[in-house]
C-alpha cells in the first residue's frame, strides 16, 4: 500500500533516472533498490558545499554518499571538507577514500549530516540503528544544522515500529538480559531480544562503543513516540534508542518514478 507523503516539497518525477548513478545505457532496465539508494545519496550530496563539516552516516545507503563526497573531492569540485564519521565502518571507508576526518570534540557543529534510515514516518520521524550505529549517529546528527536522510521508498511507513522490524536500543552489557526484560514490560505486546551476531556463533552483537543492542518488536505499535522515548530512556542500563524524533530536516526518497524531497 502506498504511504502518503504529506510534507512533499517537490518531486523530480523521473528526473534522476538518466543521471549518472543509474544504469545509463539502458533506460528500460528497472532500477534496483541499490540504484535507488545511490540516487538518493547523490541528491543529498548536492547540499554539500566546500568548507563544510559533514556528518558521514552509516549503512548501505550512506556509503554511496561517502563515496560521492570522495569523488567530488578528487575532482576538485569540493574542497576543505571535514567528515565526522558515525561508525568505525564509515571511518574505515572515509580513510580509504582519503576524506579528511575529525570528531565532535574538535568540530562540535556539523553543517550537514547525511545518513540512511530504517523507517521514516509521515512526520519525518525515523527509526535508525538496525546497522548498530545508532548512538554515534544520534550524537553527530543532533549536532547538525541540517540532517538529510536518504532512503529508497521501501523505508516509508505510516507509523514507526509498524513494519514488524526492530526498534534497536543500545544498552550496557552488564545484566543486559534483565534490561531487556524491563524494556519488554514497558509496552503491551512488546518482545525484546538481545541482538546476536551470526559470525560470532550467536554471541551478542557488540557496538562500536562496546555495548549491546536490544531489539524491541511491537505487536501493537509504539504508540506515542515521545512518551515511549522517555520510558525507554528511563530504564537503568539503557544508553540510547533508535527513534530519531524531530531530527531530520530533509528526507530524500528515491522511488521507481522519481525523487521526492520531504522537508520539515
Ligand atoms: O541506522 C543505520 C545504521 O545504524 C542505517 O542508517 C540504517 O540501518 C539504514 O541502513 P541501510 O541504508 O543499509 O538500509
TrEMBL record:
One of the protein's GO biological processes: pentose-phosphate shunt, non-oxidative branch
Catalytic activity: aldehydo-D-ribose 5-phosphate = D-ribulose 5-phosphate
CDD domains documented for this protein: RPI_A
Pathway linked to the protein: Carbohydrate degradation; pentose phosphate pathway; D-ribose 5-phosphate from D-ribulose 5-phosphate (non-oxidative stage): step 1/1
GO molecular function, one term: ribose-5-phosphate isomerase activity
E.C. code: 5.3.1.6
Record-annotated membrane-spanning stretches: none
Keywords: Isomerase
One Pfam assignment: Rib_5-P_isom_A
Leader sequence segment: none
Gene3D superfamilies tied to this protein: 3.30.70.260, 3.40.50.1360
Family the UniProt entry places it in: Belongs to the ribose 5-phosphate isomerase family.
HAMAP family: Rib_5P_isom_A
Protein name per Swiss-Prot or TrEMBL: ribose-5-phosphate isomerase
Organism expressing this protein natively: Amborella trichopoda
